[in-house]
Protein: DUF6249 domain-containing protein
Amino acid sequence: MKQLMPFIVVIVFFILIAIFILALYNYRLKKRIIDAGPLDENSTRFLAELGSGNEALKWGLVLLCAGIGLVIMQFIPYSAEDSPVPYGVEMIFISVGFIIYYLLRRRKV
Structure:
């Protein structure tokens, strides 16, 4: 696990940079659309979808399920050096978070 930590830190760093760049370009796109002139129905719907605020719900659910997965791993016996069990358990809980988000979004729409 100690060899994996620098790799994870680099990945998290690049993900944070990507999130910042996406937020910046979404802001610029909204500003250009609004500055372009009168808005029709399609552009107002696009702007509403672009800043819908569902990202907080999605990442809140995913991080909650990931945390639950980490807690559950404490109760599962496995060899910490050779076992892929922790990765599998964590991926299962993260995917459950995404599935819950998908079902909530589908029910709203």
Observations:
- The longest helix spans residues 5-35.
- The radius of gyration is 19 Å.
